[in-house]
Write a structure and sequence with these properties.
alpha+beta; BirA Bifunctional Protein, domain 2; SH3 type barrels; five-stranded antiparallel β-sheet; about 35% strand; binds biotin
Length: about 250
């Protein structure tokens, strides 16, 4: 991962560039990174404001996995990022299902995964990571949609020093480690580590999905990365969507 790097001062979206790369051969593991994006994309068709001071990058992967593994990638990526932040900046973060990284409940990074599945195999995955590295939170308020129960924050404050390159390098190392775990078939560890860092498990959660709203207590994550909510004596699986809970 990251043996080939495309760097831009400004680009529409690193995610879109990486999606273009997916049409070419020999781009497995390529990394696209930009100082700022003019058309950054967030999950669920939201805009992602990406001014200078953040880390905006996308990685193209062509794993030889079954499609069911796709949903592990948000977990794997957010976990790798949380570990890398702790190792390089000594900052503790929490993980919010499906893939937000937060500090005391405020979002500091988001992950967007575009997957293409062909004839029951993953053709490619583009993993997009947006980190508010050193940005004034007031510049990026629109990263958070109205009505969300949490705010946004930045990793490094105005007068603090911080090295984004070290963080990126460590993140790539951690990502590659868990990627190799999946290749060797050991996914249990990723789930365990994710749950350890998660702020979601144990909370009373309201989940908004395409089919409606489910309320329940978050009791775990299953093998496919789905959130398990215990609700009126039953366990419901939430595959995708947004969740809210009190801090
Ligand atoms: C989210 O909604 O939380 C996910 C945000 C993902 C943003 C990143 S920044 C790099 C990459 N390029 C994009 O256009 N989006 C992702």
């Amino acid at each position: 991962i990251g043996t080939k790097i495309y760097y831009f001062d400004s680009i529409d979206s690193t995610q879109n560039f990486a999606l273009e790369l997916s049409r070419k051969p020999h781009e497995n593991g390529s990394l696209v990174i930009a100082e700022r994006q003019t058309q950054g994309r967030g999950r669920l068709d939201r805009k992602w404001v990406s001014p200078k001071g953040g880390i905006w990058l996308s990685i193209l992967l062509r794993p030889n996995f079954e499609p069911s593994y796709t949903s592990l990638f948000p977990m794997l990526t957010s976990l790798a990022l949380s570990v890398a932040i702790q190792k390089t900046l000594k900052i503790k973060t929490e993980l919010k299902w499906p893939n937000d990284v937060t500090i005391n409940g405020d979002k500091v990074a988001g992950i967007l995964i575009d997957a293409s599945i062909e004839s029951n195999k993953i053709d490619y995955l583009v993993i997009g990571i947006g980190i508010n590295f050193k940005i004034k939170p007031s510049k990026i308020t629109s990263q958070i949609k109205e009505g969300k129960k949490y705010g946004i924050t930045t990793l490094v404050k105005k007068n603090q020093d911080g090295n984004p390159v070290k963080l990126i390098q460590q993140f790539l190392l951690e990502l590659e480690k868990s990627y190799n775990d999946i290749i060797s078939g050991s996914t249990a560890n990723i789930r365990k580590e994710w749950m350890k860092r998660s702020s979601t498990i144990g909370k009373n959660v309201t989940a908004t999905t395409t089919t409606g709203t489910i309320k329940g207590k978050a009791v775990g994550i299953d093998k496919t990365g789905a959130l398990l909510l215990s609700s009126r004596g039953k366990v419901e699986r939430v595959l995708a969507g947004d969740i809210a809970y009190k801090r």
